[in-house]
C-alpha cells in the first residue's frame, strides 16, 4: 500500500516554519495583549503593502469580513446582492443574514468565474421586476484565479452598485501583474487554515483605499465604537482578528511567495501529465493564480466517481468543490427564480480537485498523475 498523500499538510509546513513560528507566538504569550495586540497592526501594515492597498483591517474571518463590508454599505431588506452560484456558501449567506436577497449568477464554462453577460442580464431582470433594489455585486476569485474585474467594474459603475471582491480563495494571486486587493471598492480575504495564506484558526481581512470606509470597518469590527472605547456610534459586531493568529500569519507571510511559486510548479506538473487525458484548468488571461485549488473536469459524474475511487484506493485524496451550486442548496433555492444555471449545474457534476499544497513532493504529484492515467488506459 502506498503512503497516504495529504490534501493539505499543515504538519510539514509547521516543521518548515520551525523556530520563527515559535518565537513569534511566544512573544504574544509574553506581552499578553491577545486582542488587537501589536502583531495585528504589524500584519495589517504588511498585508496592505503586499497588495498595494492603502488600508487593511484584520477581522475574525472571511465571512465576517464580507459582513462588515456589506454593513458599511447598509445592505439590508429589499436589497439585491448579485453573486456567482458556483462559490462557497459564505458568499450567499452574508446578504441573507443582513436581510438582503442573493441573486445567483452563472459562471464561465472555462474559467469557472462569474459570467459578466449573465450578471448584466440578471441586473436588468431585477430592475424590470421592480421588487428588489439592486445594491451590490460580490465578485469571487474562485480557486485562486481572478474574477473578470475589468468587466465587473464597468457594470458596477454603469449600474451604480457597490462592488466587493471576495478574495477568500485567492490572496496572493495577481491580475495584470498587480496583486488582487484593489480591483473593487473593497476586497476581503480569509485566513482559514486551508486558504493560500492560512492561519491556525479563523481570521480574515478587508482592504480598501478609502480612508472613511477604513475607519467605518474598524468601528464595525469592534461593536460600532467611536473614538473612545465606550462610545457606541452604530450597531457593529465582535469581528476582530486575534493577536495569536496575526503572529502565525506574520511568520507564514515570510515564506508565502515561495509557497505560491511551489504551487505554480505543481500546477504545471499536473498540466503536463494530465492535459491529454482530462480537461485541465483554463487560465484567466493576464493573471497569476494563487492555486488554492487545482480542479480538473471529467466527462460526467460516473467518470468522476471512477477516478475518485481509483485514487482513493491508492491513498490519494480528492475533493469536490462544489457538488451543488448554491441556487440548488436547500437553504437557498427559495431565493432563486427557478431558472437553470446551466454551467454551474454542469460543472458541479464533473469537477474534481486534486491535492495541491506547497509541501507536496514531485514524486507525490507524479503518483497522482500516474493514478489518473491508469484509469484512462
Ligand atoms: C472560505 C471562503 C469564505 C469564508 O471565509 P471564512 O474565513 O471561512 O469565514 C468566503 N468566500 C469564499 C469564496 C471562501 O472560499
Write the element-wise H/E pattern from the N-terminal end onward: HHEHEHEHEHEEEEEHHHEEHHEH
Strand content: 5-15%
Strand element count: 12
Strand order of the largest sheet: 1-9-8-5-4-2-3
- Give a list of the ligands: pyridoxal-5'-phosphate
Q: Taking all residues together, what is the mean pLDDT? A: 97
In CATH, the architecture of the largest domain is 3-Layer(aba) Sandwich
CATH class of the largest domain: Alpha Beta
Structure description:
- This protein is of the alpha/beta class and 377 residues long.
- The chain folds into two domains: 10-253, Aspartate Aminotransferase, domain 2; 256-375, Aspartate Aminotransferase, domain 1.
- Helix content is 42%, strand content 14%.
- The chain contains twelve helices and twelve strands.
- Strands 1-9-8-5-4-2-3 form a seven-stranded mixed β-sheet, with helices on both faces.
- The chain is globular.
- The model has no long low-confidence stretch (mean pLDDT 97).
- The site of pyridoxal-5'-phosphate has 15 residues, from helix 3 and helix 4.
Descriptive labels:
3-stranded antiparallel sheet; 7-stranded mixed sheet; binds pyridoxal-5'-phosphate; alpha/beta; Aspartate Aminotransferase, domain 2
Amino acid at each position: 500500500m502506498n503512503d497516504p498523500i495529504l490534501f493539505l499538510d499543515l504538519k510539514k509546513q509547521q516543521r518548515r516554519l520551525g523556530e520563527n513560528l515559535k518565537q513569534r507566538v511566544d512573544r504574544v504569550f509574553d506581552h499578553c495583549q491577545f486582542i488587537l495586540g501589536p502583531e495585528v497592526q504589524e500584519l495589517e501594515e504588511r498585508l496592505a503593502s503586499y497588495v498595494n492597498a492603502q488600508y487593511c483591517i484584520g477581522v475574525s474571518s472571511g465571512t465576517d469580513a464580507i459582513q462588515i463590508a456589506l454593513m458599511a454599505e447598509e445592505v439590508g431588506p429589499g436589497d439585491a446582492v448579485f453573486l456567482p452560484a458556483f462559490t462557497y456558501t459564505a458568499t450567499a449567506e452574508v446578504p441573507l443574514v443582513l436581510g438582503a436577497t442573493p441573486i445567483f449568477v452563472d459562471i464561465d464554462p472555462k474559467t469557472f468565474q462569474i459570467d459578466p453577460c449573465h450578471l448584466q442580464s440578471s441586473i436588468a431582470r431585477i430592475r424590470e421586476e421592480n421588487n428588489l433594489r439592486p445594491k451590490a455585486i460580490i465578485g469571487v476569485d474562485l480557486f485562486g484565479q481572478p474574477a473578470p474585474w475589468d468587466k465587473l467594474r464597468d457594470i458596477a459603475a454603469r449600474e451604480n452598485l457597490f462592488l466587493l471582491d471576495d478574495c477568500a480563495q485567492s490572496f496572493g494571486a495577481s491580475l495584470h501583474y498587480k496583486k488582487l486587493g484593489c480591483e473593487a471598492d473593497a476586497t476581503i480575504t480569509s485566513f482559514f487554515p486551508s486558504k493560500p495564506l492560512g492561519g491556525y484558526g479563523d481570521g480574515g481581512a478587508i482592504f480598501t483605499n478609502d480612508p472613511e470606509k477604513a475607519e467605518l470597518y474598524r468601528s464595525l469590527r469592534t461593536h460600532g465604537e467611536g473614538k473612545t472605547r465606550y462610545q457606541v456610534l452604530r450597531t457593529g459586531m465582535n469581528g476582530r482578528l486575534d493577536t495569536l493568529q496575526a503572529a502565525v500569519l506574520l511568520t507564514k507571510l515570510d515564506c508565502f511567495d515561495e509557497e505560491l511559486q511551489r504551487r505554480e510548479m505543481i500546477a504545471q506538473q499536473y498540466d503536463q501529465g494530465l492535459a491529454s487525458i482530462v480537461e485541465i484548468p483554463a487560465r484567466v488571461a493576464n493573471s497569476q493564480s494563487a492555486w488554492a485549488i487545482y480542479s480538473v473536469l471529467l466527462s460526467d459524474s460516473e467518470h468522476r466517481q471512477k477516478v475518485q475511487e481509483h485514487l482513493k484506493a491508492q491513498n490519494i485524496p480528492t475533493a469536490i468543490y462544489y457538488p451543488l451550486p448554491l441556487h440548488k442548496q436547500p437553504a437557498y433555492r427559495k431565493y432563486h427564480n427557478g431558472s437553470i444555471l446551466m454551467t454551474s449545474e454542469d460543472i458541479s457534476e464533473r469537477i474534481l480537485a486534486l491535492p495541491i499544497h506547497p509541501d507536496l513532493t514531485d514524486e507525490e504529484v507524479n503518483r497522482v498523475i500516474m493514478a489518473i492515467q491508469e484509469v484512462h488506459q
